[in-house]
């Protein structure tokens, strides 16, 4: 039996050198489980910034913009699991959509010391089966994924909130700016408007925003608008012209051109053909 394909699931553990920094923020059409085995890391997710340390697990939904970088000079190591919508649906059917969705809403799980060995064992077994690929591997991976989510759902119900992810002043300001953009993406907001909102000069804000998020200011707004537009196309029956205006595009033709350039397909075809998503 062949190894499960990337479209189904992918598991990988990687060591990364001192000061490793992801070149750009990105997003992918897969759910992600990220577990930090060593080092400390700064995580930018949509509009939020988290400082995470060894033993932290992060859940990312599909098409969520994110960027990571190590925040110390120590060597880092992480395991990630990428999986598709059918994997997600099977887990949601087994344990309830609300319970699984709640885990993804929480995003960050600092795993207690006495439970890290257990989590790391599950991830090692997942990776071993992914790389092994005999006739039992696919089923075993499904079982390990279910076991992992049972742990996370229990954790989500019983976790005590803490202040572990304290941010620097600069990061707090950029997080506030990102939240401002997410709340006002459908308006005609500019870089100078946002810089003024957080009390920075436009030049310094532009550089700082790029450094922290991995996106240029215009690129970030465009990606937020495109994500909202995709949601409206799939979850509502609003006309494309109305969706364009709802998401901050002043010209529906421009919206169509931008959408096709980014997604490789027109908004109407995107709505009609879910296999392109």
- What is the topology, as strand order, of the major beta sheet? 1-7-2-5-8
CATH topology of the largest domain: Jelly Rolls
Backbone shape: globular
Question: Quick check: average pLDDT?
Answer: 87
The figure for the number of domains is 2
Major sheet size, sense and barrel closure: 5 strands, antiparallel
- Alpha carbon gap, first and last residue: 28 Å
CATH uppermost class of the largest domain: Mainly Beta
Helix proportion = 40-55%
Radius of gyration: 20 Å
Beta-strand proportion? 15-25%
Low-pLDDT segments: none
What's the number of helices? 11
Oligomeric assembly: single chain
Order of H and E elements? EEEEEEEHHEHHHHHHHHH
Structural class: alpha+beta
The CATH architecture of the largest domain: Sandwich
Total number of β-strand segments? 8
Description:
The structure is a single chain. The chain has 277 residues and is of the alpha+beta class. Helices cover 52% and strands 18% of the residues. Helix 5 packs across helix 6 (191-198) and helix 9 crosses helix 10 (252-263). The mean pLDDT is 87.
Helix-strand layout with pairing:
Elements: E1 9-16, E2 31-38, E3 40-45, E4 48-53, E5 56-60, E6 66-70, E7 76-83, H1 85-95, H2 97-106, E8 108-110, H3 113-132, H4 137-158, H5 169-184, H6 191-198, H7 202-213, H8 217-235, H9 240-246, H10 252-263, H11 267-272
